Amino acid sequence: MFDPLSDGFMEDPHPHYAEVRRHAPVHEHPGGFWMLSRHEDVEALLRAEHSVDKGNARSSGAPAPAPRRKGLALIDQDPPHHTRLRGLLSQAFTPRAMSGVEPVVRDLVGGALDDLERAGGGDLVETLAFPLPFAVITRILGMPEIDTARLRELTGLLVRLGEPGSGSRAKEDRAAADAEMTGLVSDAITRKHRERGDDLLTALIDAEDDGDRLSHDELVAQVAMVYVAGYETTVNLLSGGVLALLRDPDQLSLLRARPDLDRNAIEELLRYEPPVHLTRRITLRPHRAGEHEIPAGSVVLASLAGANRDEGFWGPDAGRLRLDREDARRHLSFGGGVHYCVGGMLARLQARIAITGLVRRFPGLKQAGEVRWNGLVSLRGAAYLPVRV
């Protein structure tokens, strides 16, 4: 069964996911949750419109409808409140809005690559993967002056405190970090009402659907969510994608030689090394997976990383990186159903510009030491990736 404490898991969890998928693709875990690993089962769960609200978890019986919680972020809401929030939020993430982001990303990537060139290399996480998504989010939001260093610390802290096994004080520490971040963001939004501009935050303030607007508390929750959900995940996508290419020289050479593969290459990197390994649903009704019927009110962990390398779906080469894979876009790295990642377009854009720019600018790019991992299970990624350019 799923065991993140097993030998070698933190170094490389994919062999463990493969064993679980092969021998127990659907199982009830003694930790009090169910686990799904096959692509078919994971995709069906994500499309089934079960709950993301842990308040719906019960040991037995159908869960009662969850009351609306004012200001709760999109990723923690179920329909119909999720539908309302997503409709308003998506107005600020339209293709037209995103078209103005590309020059910002290119400018930031160019500066990071200049720094790498001057130094002859360095830690790719600290130089590129770590600062880029935070700077992009801050720039496109048009955040007023804010303590960005502390905001970045709080973002990372909230991600880590949300992980399984984060310790007995995690609930209290998370509440304190959340309260501090809420205060920072709330103050920035108050000032933004007076300092409007052509940016995402102004668009969120103005977003309207038949007279409905986001309240101040809801605005704070969505902005905090964009940082927490869109930051660490993109760090993992950038560092994980580059590491996968460095470990496969043939695919690295292929990407350098074939600009026509750029978009598909990012889909394959998302499949091969997803930035999020696990996601959770709570069943609102009995759910069938393989030969098992999962009761209503059950917590179900869906292994996105396991599903993305399922030989039963992808074929015998599922464990190989292949940038020209025709169906790479069918990965589940951005989830599925009504909770499909609203920021997927932005993540793809950053990865395409940063990864292709890095490998083509530096034909001598090499790994210059051992990678160190961040110690997380759901958001596993590199904390340190030394390179020479």
Going by CATH, the architecture would be Orthogonal Bundle
The secondary-structure element order is HEEHHHHEHHHHHEEHHHEEEEHHHEEEE
Please state the structural category.
Answer: alpha+beta
Oligomer, anyone?
Answer: single chain
Uncertain spans: 60-71
From the N-terminal CA to the C-terminal CA, the straight-line distance is 42 Å
Q: What is the number of helices?
A: 16
Top-tier CATH class: Mainly Alpha
Radius of gyration from the alpha-carbon trace, in angstroms:
21 Å
Helix fraction bin = 40-55%
Tally of strands: 13
Give the overall form.
globular
Main sheet strand line-up: 1-2-9-6
Family: Belongs to the cytochrome P450 family.
Organism: Streptomyces termitum
InterPro entries: Cyt_P450, Cyt_P450_B, Cyt_P450_CS, Cyt_P450_sf
Keywords: Heme, Iron, Metal-binding, Monooxygenase, Oxidoreductase
Brief overview, please?
By secondary structure, the chain is an alpha+beta fold. It is 49% helix and 11% strand. The strands form five sheets. The chain has a four-stranded mixed β-sheet. The protein has a three-stranded antiparallel β-sheet with strand order 3-13-10.
Could you list some keywords that capture this structure?
globular; four-stranded mixed sheet; 13 strands; Cytochrome p450; 389 residues; single chain
